[in-house]
Amino acid sequence: MNSTSLSKSILHQKHQELDFLHHFHGLGYDLIDLSAIEQFDWTKLSEDDLGLMNERHKWQHEGFLFALRSDWTNAIVRYRKKYQLDAEKIAYSGPVYTLNSEKHQYGLETYTSDIDKQTKILKQMVHYIKEHLSITLSVAVISHNTLLKTLLSEKELADELTRKFIKERNRDALAIKIGEKHPVIELMSHPAAEQANYVKEHMPHLKRHIEEMNLWESILIEENVSYVYGDMLALPSQTYYKGISIQLYSEDKVEPIASGGQYSSPTNAFGIGLNI
Amino acid sequence: MITMALSKGRQLKDFIQYLDKKDLTNWSAALKSISRELVIETDSIRFLLVKGEDVPVYVEEGVADLGITGSDVLFEQNRQINNLIDLPFGYCHFAIAAKKNQETYPVVATKYINFTQNYFDSVKQPVKIIQLKGSVELAATIDMADAIMDIVQTGTTLKENGLSEQVKLDEINARLISNKHAYFAKNDEIQTIINQLRMD
After folding, report:
1. Where in chain B is the domain with CATH 3.40.190.10?
2. Coiled coil located at which positions (chain A) (predicted)?
3. Which superfamily, per CATH, for B2-91+172-197?
């Protein structure tokens, strides 16, 4: 890339970020900015903090643990535990770092249990992706973070190998671990695209979960996302994810362009972030 | 278009045989035609030919949507991938081999350091692991280690180096793996391939 096109690319990226913040500020979102360096107290690390530490750049200084921000929602959850945040909906942008990469996240969060308000955030984000970024969304995956809790015992849910086999969709190994006749094994014997229908037909006690998934699914179908799949095997990465989780993909890309979901920490919320 | 990473060598030959058995001759013909190429394409699939240990890397990074590699490689690497189905080739097993049977093996040479550590943790025995890249048998033959942890198919190599299998451990075979996101983003195409490759 020559210096002119590099400069154009940098200007485009900065302009895009400003455009995102201006656009959503215009729609009534409060803007928030947080330090990319987060400070932790060793004695107050939560289970979620510990779970993420393997994936974060971290160091110790004068008795405190410091880490680079790896996820905006996670940073905001921690901020809200510590400070009062009066806004009902916020927009943010800024870098996030994993151990070997840097990404820019632009995102929206709303602090309400009102589903209409939550779904409005999703619609606004989808519109922004389509209209402002000119990206066509081809696939969406919707999951429910509490669905597996109803199919697995507490012991099974806590078992590291069981969780690994579910995450890897390794039906053969999981069948040896929990038994060929376990409902999760029955579910996994169906192709991913047919698992939602299987649950609807054979697991009536999961009706509430499926209805919630259907509601969010219908919004994405209305927004002309070509394929919307229900993922019945999601295990939440953080304990505060307690409801719907969504990933949006553009044509021929294997990394989601946007991902988000419902969470509860300390009150009900919904957030969705764009990965640029 | 689906991209599939395959490991070169014996596993590739086994895969071609399996494709012929399943009447997937379009793919097998393409793979039979390769000489030194590392990428080969048919109308529906692109194959990347890589080192077996690198297959999960290509899949995790999303360069390949699917991959075929041994479960020994997956045991050793903790990759964020989907580990989808068994394939009926590449059969062998992990084993501890030594010159003679001992109650404990305090020093073990291996390529598989994570698997070895997990095994000795599970039997509550301390172990010093010496990591080697190849010719692992030599370590026990010249007494650099009390035993080796390696994959065993026929046992001929062990025998030729004066070693024998002492503890038989996990079975190994080829597995179809997928990138976590491609599993949904390209679900139709991936499900078709799963159905085509699944054992009868």
Report:
1. 2-91+172-197, 92-171
2. none
3. Periplasmic binding protein-like II (3.40.190.10)
Tokens of residue A241, six digits: 């994810």
Task: Collect all residues of chain A within an 8 Å Cβ-Cβ radius of residue B186.
Answer: 254
Q: Which CATH superfamily is domain B92-171 in?
A: Periplasmic binding protein-like II (3.40.190.10)
List pLDDT tens digits, range A90-130.
999 999 998 888 999 999 999 999 999 999 999 999 999 99
Residue B34, helix vs strand vs coil: coil
A131 found inside a domain: yes
Quote the number of domains for chain A.
1
The number of beta carbons lying within 10 Å of the beta carbon of residue A135 is 18
Please give the single-letter amino acid code of residue A71.
Answer: D
Q: Which amino acid is at B8?
A: K
Q: Which pLDDT band, with edges at 50, 70 and 90, does B185 fall under? A: confident
Q: Which of A217, A248, A254, A255 is the mutation pick for testing B, counting most B CBs within 10 A?
A: A254
pLDDT tens per residue across span A208-243: 889 999 999 999 999 999 888 889 998 877 778 889
Tell me the two tokens of residue A99.
């151990």
A148 neighbors A132 (Cβ within 8 angstroms): no
**Cβ contact B83:A168 at 8 Å:** yes
CB-CB neighbors (< 8 A) of B181 in chain A: 247, 249, 254-256
A172, A191, A227 member nearest B86 (Cβ): A172
CA B181 to chain CA centroid, Å, is 22
Assess if residue A117 is contained within a domain.
yes
Is some CB atom of chain A closer than 8 A to the CB atom of B55?
Answer: no
Q: What is the pLDDT of residues B97-138, one digit of tens each?
A: 999 999 999 999 999 999 999 999 999 999 999 999 989 999
Look at the block and give the residue holding tokens 């190998």. Answer: A161
The CATH number of whichever domain residue A132 belongs to comes to: 3.30.930.10
Residue A45 is assigned to a structural domain of this protein: no
**CB < 8 Å to A168, chain B:** 81-83
For the question of an ipTM over 0.90, the answer is no
**How many other C-beta atoms are found inside a 10 Å radius of the C-beta of residue A146?**
16
| For residue A191, cis peptide bond before it (omega within 30 degrees of 0) | no
pLDDT in tens, A184-201: 999 999 988 888 889 989
The nearest alpha carbon in chain B to A165 belongs to B83
Nearest to A20 by CA among A135, A132, A137: A132
Structural domain of A227: 112-275
* pLDDT score of A1: 57
Q: What is the pLDDT of residue B118?
A: 95
